[in-house]
Amino acid sequence: MSNSSAFDYKLIRSARRTLSVSVSPDNVITVRSPYSVPQAEIIRFLNAKKGWIEANLNKNSLLRNVFGEVMSGRTIFVCGREVCLCVDKAGIEGIFNGSVRVHDIKNLKKVYVSALGDQFLKMAESIASRCGMRAAAWGFRSYRSRWGCCDGENRITFNYKILMLPERLQTYIIVHELCHTRRRDHSPAFNGLVLSVLPQKSVLERELKDYSFLARMY
């Protein structure tokens, strides 16, 4: 870590061509730099990004105030509802009224899909029917950086952690992926298609960003 600027940061040098900075959900600032860039230029770069960095640090701090128990692993979301998370090798696995119980944290996907997957996919089929769109197949897997994926054959696969989200955000992700059966890109035409189904698209996108830490957990 360096103390030569207004921020402590982790520096990663590589054969890349440009400088970049990122702020992780736990407020670790990482600078990625070409091998040849001197330290003084890196500090100038960080000073120029000071406002952006501080905004992200503050936002992360606010999110930790709201989601701290989930981030710590003491609780977990079930369709937007916060319940206890119990890891117990001797207990019964499942989602119960006030808790999620697993033998091992690696079993979360199996438990969530078993308990909630069918109900969710019925909702997805209903939304597809209302939108006049169709997925060739549905499925779940564990992603670390995305909520869903629509492949070239219109098979839609969801991050199983979508089952942790409130229904309104689940709906947004379903619609987003269904629209990829018509448009493969994120062009204005694609955004217009999503908006035609969900006029509140921008509000839902902003809210979904607050839950992005879930995709990197478990």
Can you describe this structure?
This protein is an alpha/beta fold. It folds into 2 domains: 10-66, no CATH class; 116-216, Metalloproteases ("zincins"), catalytic domain (Zincin-like, 2-Layer Sandwich). It has 7 helices and 10 strands. It has helices spanning 39-48, 50-72, 108-131, 167-179, 188-197, 201-210, 212-216; strands at residues 10-14, 20-23, 29-34, 75-78, 81-87, 94-96, 99-102, 137-141, 148-150, 155-159. The strands form 3 sheets. Strands 4-5-7-6 form a 4-stranded mixed β-sheet. Strands 1-3-2 form a 3-stranded mixed β-sheet. Strands 8-10-9 form a 3-stranded mixed β-sheet, covered by helices on one side. Helix 3 crosses helix 4 (167-179). The protein starts with 9 loop residues before the first strand and ends with a helix. 22% of the residues are buried. The model has no long low-confidence stretch (mean pLDDT 94).
